[in-house]
Amino acid sequence: MSGRSFSVATWNVNSLKVRLPHLGQWLQSSHVDVVALQETKVTDADFPFDEIRDLGYRVVAHGQRTYNGVALLARSEISDVLCGIPDFSDEQARVLAATVEGVRIIDVYVPNGQSVGSDKYLYKLRWLDALRTYLTAALQEYSKVIVLGDFNIAPEDRDVHDVKAWEGQVLVSEPERAALAGILDLGFIDTFRQSSQAAGAYSWWDYRQGAFRHNAGLRIDLVLASERLSKDLDGCLIEREPRGWERPSDHTPVVASFNLK
DNA sequence: ATGGCTAACATGGTTAGA
């Protein structure tokens, strides 16, 4: 018996003001049900709510000036909105959760970490520990949970274009990967890896030195699904096209499709 | 080769991203 189709996307837009036309063009063809944005870099007061409603989406935002900022777009009703990580004091707007069609959606913009051993790296590891605690509670409250966003961690060597160059560096270092593994161990599936074992499938390419042309990238944008939901997974696709458009984000959208039973 | 791009803030050059 066939269920209800439900598609969810993540996209680090690296400034929503600059990328609003890209978002509009992409949504016209993709028609996804839910979009989680990161690095909107816009305050809630300046957020383009009307423009996004005109694209056919309801929207909630958790933003700040200049840096960070997350938003959730959905074709249907958005409820039980929660900003940030509970019991974790953070001035940076990086997490936004809401329920759509009975699915708990948690949009995350994991800190970059700058360089291994730096203060920002230690903040990243503390932050990931707090996220793990949050997701433990979320799984107790909800069975259908999707955690998606810019994780700023390449899970495995096959998610890295040049393993020698990146080995031990931020985004690839062992403590970061262990923190991600600790989150997956709670009962989440990396939806891309459930549907593809391919190497060389990336979601981010540096702006410099023709990295996209050479496919010199990393897979750091992930859609994780709780075990209950992963049973309904149709597939996960990295949509490369928007990365090749004029004035692109350095990240490209990643879409997971479900057939909800 | 600690450069290379891009965006914000500002209006030149710094900070940050990944």
Report what the structure shows.
- The structure is a single chain.
- The protein is of the alpha+beta class and 261 residues long.
- It is built from 7 helices and 14 strands.
- The strands form 3 sheets. It has a 6-stranded mixed sheet. Strands 5-6-7-8-12-9 form a 6-stranded mixed sheet. It has a two-stranded antiparallel ribbon with strand order 10-11.
- Helix 1 links the parallel strand 1 and strand 2.
- The longest helix is centred in the middle third of the chain and has 23 residues.
- It is globular.
- The protein starts with a strand and ends with a strand.
- The model has no long low-confidence stretch (mean pLDDT 97).
- The chain binds one DNA strand of 18 nucleotides through loops.
Please tell me the overall pLDDT: 97
- Structural class call reads alpha+beta
Strand content: 25-35%
Summarize the main sheet. 6 strands, mixed
Could you tell me the number of beta strands? 14
- Based on CA atoms alone, the radius of gyration comes out at 17 Å
Distance between the ends: 9 Å
Q: Which series of helices and strands comes N to C?
A: EHEHEEEEEHEHHEHEEEHEE
List the helices and strands and how they pair.
Blueprint: E1 4-12, H1 16-30, E2 34-38, H2 49-54, E3 58-62, E4 70-74, E5 79-83, E6 95-100, E7 103-109, H3 119-141, E8 145-150, H4 163-166, H5 174-184, E9 188-190, H6 191-195, E10 204-205, E11 217-218, E12 221-226, H7 227-230, E13 233-238, E14 254-260
Parallel strand pairs: 1-2, 7-8
Antiparallel strand pairs: 1-14, 2-4, 3-4, 5-6, 6-7, 8-12, 9-12, 10-11, 13-14
The protein binds one DNA strand of 18 nucleotides through loops.
